[in-house]
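Entry 12.
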Amino acid sequence: MKSLNPIVMSGKEVLPLVEGGKGIAVSSGECSGAWAAAGGVATFSGVNADSYDENGNIIPQLYHGRTRKDRHEELVTYGIQGGIAQARIAHDIAGGEGRVHMNVLWEMGGAERILHGVLEGARGLIHGITCGAGMPYRVAQIAADYKVHYYPIISSARAFNALWRRAYHKFADWLGGVVYEDPWLAGGHNGLSNSESPNNPEDPYPRVASLRALMNKMGLNNVPIIMAGGVWHIEDWEHWLDNPEIGPISFQFGTRPLLTRESPISDAWKEKLLTLKKGDVFLNKFSPTGFYSSAVRNDFIRELQGRSERQVTFFNEPVDDHTAAFSMGPRKRDIYLTAENKENAEKWVAQGYTSALKTPSDTMIFVTPEKMKEIRKDQVDCMGCLSQCSFSNWADNETGNNGRKADPRSFCIQKTLQDVIHSTSNVENNLMFAGHGAYRFATDPFYSNGFIPTVKELVDRIMTGR
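Predicted 3D structure (tokens):
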């Protein structure tokens, strides 16, 4: 294999290996610091990161405010404190090696305030900001104000062109790199456009070559592209190295660092990763963000699939073929379904799905009474973790409302992601993000007999090409 040459990122020569910044507390300061210490570019999560008390114990993110806006203020405070705490840990462990970056989702609630708060409170500890999940026009200005580099996460040349023309051309000196995140292969939230099908993946090479051609026209010939999504063995990408069509290139690893000794995820989660098969990670659109996302198919996902499958279109009066009367709710008011859907609804009710919830799509889903109670409670307990949430109808604006009905087909993403990282065993009933290559843990001989490497051992292995 061609040798992997060092690359300059965020003002320092480093290995062309970037740790992907996974949300909540999954990319912690401990694992990220170890990645930087090994000579790469580390990325800790600035999304509701953990903070600690005077005894070093994690402070539970509990909310006491009576209103969503009150709880949102608590969330912003937690986010700033946690981001500063993780930056300090990563910086101390890195010991001056590599680079330390922070990952921020532009669509998270209070994103700009949290970004300002962490960068102010952790001056000199963070070298770069990666930012995706939306169109982060203002991240360039913020990064420049604090004299750190910024790394937008995009999934097409078209998206970068829009960012560059509107804002980034004014702050070109602080553009450290462009992360191309494959929308069909990356874990977490994916940047599929309305014109792209989740079922028709495209080869990343021509898409990245197109991005490079655009960047060269903008005078960004020496700005590296970071390939993210689907990267496992570097030797699979050897034709990208020293390739003028691709230019300066680095590779991001989001899924492989999950299975390291420094990774904060539970042993149960690590064991689950070792058993995945091809297809166990799939694209779905249940996320309250409205984006597609890639997650492990488990009981949590299957329950969401079941909700959407137990769904019917209804009318309050007979319309066209919706003439079959069906009684629902405590008042037993009639709604009108097709004959086929009435038969399905009766079957679901007989199976115990006796509670019906209306959706913004003029449909109705059938769930158990226990699930309906949980959904309602989660919606009421909303703390505004997203800029806009389809599940709770929260919006980070003056009204605290996005003007749409809450959608019971989705879920509280903050609740489940906090639970899955802080629980020691509950991985089947929580959301587990992962890249589509996660099945390779079970087939890669590096992980034979359940071997879990340190971050340093993983980086050394990757540098061999595998």
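Annotation: The mean pLDDT is 96. Residues 299-422 form one domain.
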